[in-house]
Amino acid sequence: MVKVLFVCLGNICRSPMAEAIFRKKVVEAGMEKSFVIDSAGTGDWHIGKRPHDGTLKILKDNKVDSTNMLARQVKKEDLKQFDYIIAMDAENLGNLNKMKGKDSAAEVRRLLDYIPEAKIVDVPDPYFTGNFEEVYELVEEACNELLTYIRKKQSL
């Protein structure tokens, strides 16, 4: 099983969007039995809450399932259990690297690192910008590239 965790600040906008989009891509590729996909936030403000209304709307508009998604906070054990931990921005990446112990073999990178020649490095936070469409498009493209990368690296 390939275990992928998407991480943002509060786990209500970017990371649940990435989780849902990536899950859909994995299902479309017929590989759902080969993956565990989850998301979490570095902060604890929204634990147990559904994704932001803007995230839910953009996912629904694009026919991406968001059933049973609830915010949670990333735990130190996640850094040992997941193979790929995908941060939405430099702040999330920094927080994850501080949590990562020497016993973690996880690949910890920003989502947009997987887009060759990306024009930006951080996924903007639509909680502050309100631009869920822009974020959806970035995450969609990056999830395509991430799945291609993982399939090649894991020989799937």
Q: Please, could you describe this protein's structure?
A:
- With 156 residues, the protein is an alpha/beta fold.
- The chain has a single domain (2-154), classed as Rossmann fold.
- It is built from 6 helices and 4 strands, in the order E-H-E-H-H-E-H-E-H-H.
- Strands 2-1-3-4 form a 4-stranded parallel sheet.
- Strand 1 (2-8), helix 1 (14-28) and strand 2 (35-41) form a beta-alpha-beta unit.
- Helix 1 crosses helix 6.
- The longest helix is centred in the last third of the chain and has 23 residues, at 132-154.
- The protein is globular.
Main traits of this protein?
6 helices, 156 residues, alpha/beta, Rossmann fold
Low-confidence stretches: none
> Which structural class fits the helix and strand makeup?
alpha/beta
Percentage of β-strand residues? 5-15%
End-to-end span in angstroms?
Answer: 11 Å
Topology, number of strands: 4
With strands numbered from the N-terminus, the spatial order across the biggest sheet is 2-1-3-4
Proper CATH architecture: 3-Layer(aba) Sandwich
User: Within the CATH hierarchy, at the fold level, what is the topology?
Assistant: Rossmann fold
- Compute the gyration radius: what is it? 14 Å
What is the number of helices? 6
Number of domains in the coordinates? Answer: 1
Order of helices and strands: EHEHHEHEHH
Can you tell me the CATH class? Answer: Alpha Beta
Overall 3D form: globular
User: CATH H level: which superfamily?
Assistant: Response regulator
Roughly how much helix do the residues carry, as a percent range? Answer: 40-55%
The main sheet comes to: 4 strands, parallel
Average of pLDDT: 96
